[in-house]
Amino acid sequence: MDEEYDAIVLGTGLKECILSGMLSVSGKKVLHIDRNKYYGGESASITPLEDLFSRFNAPKPDETYGRGRDWNVDLIPKFLMAHGQLVKLLIHTGVTRYLEFKSVEGSYVYNKSGKISKVPVDEKEAFSSDLMGLFEKRRFKNFLVYVQDFKEDDPKTWKDMNPNVTTMKTVYDKFGLDPNTQDFTGHALALYRDDDYLNLPSLTTIKRIKLYSDSLARYGKSPYLYPMYGLGELPQGFARLSAIYGGTYMLDKPVDELVMENGHVIGVRSGKEMARCKQVYCDASYVPDKARKTGQVIRCICLMSHPVPGTNDALSTQIIIPQKQVGRKSDIYVSLVSYTHQVAAKNWFVAMVSTTVETDQPENEIQHGLKLLGPIQQKFIWIQDYYEPIDDGLASGIFISKSYDATTHFETTCLDVLDIFRRGTGEDFDFSKVKHDLGDEDQ
């Protein structure tokens, strides 16, 4: 360990493994250390099923659940956007040779009447959607055409609305979209978690809707992908990526101290050994004095023997419950995966309901999501504190990831990772640095 590194990454959570891969691709000499024996940290996949039950102090599962080793249950499931940057990174680098993805079959949104509807993303779906009346469908169709035709570098496509200045609220109003249509567009298409975006320039929102639409075009059923055998495979995929570019990994290695000099990190000590470095990247658990708790997330893992009612028997799906539809400040998220993803025994399903905690009775806050699921054989509830770094890390050289939020998609995770990379290196990640030839055999 007595070498010097450009960066030391602590922990093998999903964000840390992605950062390790990105830093290695960018030519940094990286050492990656985890005190655990396994990859994934708090975003690990739990197998066999007996380990999941014992983790939550539940009696052992009976034989109706099938073989325990057939289960790989994510503690924090997330779907990947099919056209998103990190999927592109996986494809370009050939890391996909270690991973197999399956398209998520459905994407739904909840409305205040208590029913769920498929998220409409093109003209055909808009006209068949039960979310809107006939005249609203026409207005929404015109809005979708505007988004699809929009080009950031071509002012002729802006419809006299400068996207760098005009707010999203103004854009919605120009197309005459009613509050409910604005709600599912912002939360189920652009994937915002609150309505602050309405008063910001529209460019980012338009790009997010285009990303959703482009991702949907890749596979047709939904814009989302999910790895076979669960998310536990993903950190290992990025770890291999880091190794291809010269990164070094050490699991089951205690981290005793971040060594500082004049307020800046110069190394990491484990026992009597010390590895010197210029920067450290880690989650808040490694440096609790440099992070603050800003909230809590409640998650409920549900084991079921059936798909979610009202989804055409989809074997995987995401449902977003926009906060306004149920009188909340934050959205509720529901995800479902199944035995077809090799994460459960034959004919079994794994659902997750999650949200940001707003009251002193968190379990009541996820009831709208739980009601959508139908009968639940077994559920596990836990509440996690949400941490954010207290500063940008530039002075200390210590760059800290945020905790995982309640979303069941990967986009906020991506944004955090790209932001950390930008702060740490002073530049945006350059996808052109990736050696495309590594993946040629898989194209």
Automatic annotation (TrEMBL):
The keyword Secreted does not apply. Coiled coil: none annotated. Gene3D superfamilies: FAD/NAD(P)-binding domain, Guanine Nucleotide Dissociation Inhibitor, domain 1, Guanine Nucleotide Dissociation Inhibitor, domain 2. GO terms for biological process: protein transport; small GTPase-mediated signal transduction; vesicle-mediated transport. GO terms for molecular function: GTPase activator activity; Rab GDP-dissociation inhibitor activity. One of its GO terms (cellular component) is cytoplasm. It holds the Pfam family GDI. The keyword Signal does not apply. Keywords: Cytoplasm, GTPase activation. Signal peptide: none annotated. Its main location: cytoplasm. InterPro entries: FAD/NAD-bd_sf, GDP_dissociation_inhibitor, RabGDI. It is found in: Cytoplasm. Regulates the GDP/GTP exchange reaction of most RAB proteins by inhibiting the dissociation of GDP from them, and the subsequent binding of GTP. Belongs to the Rab GDI family. This is Rab GDP dissociation inhibitor. It comes from Cloeon dipterum.
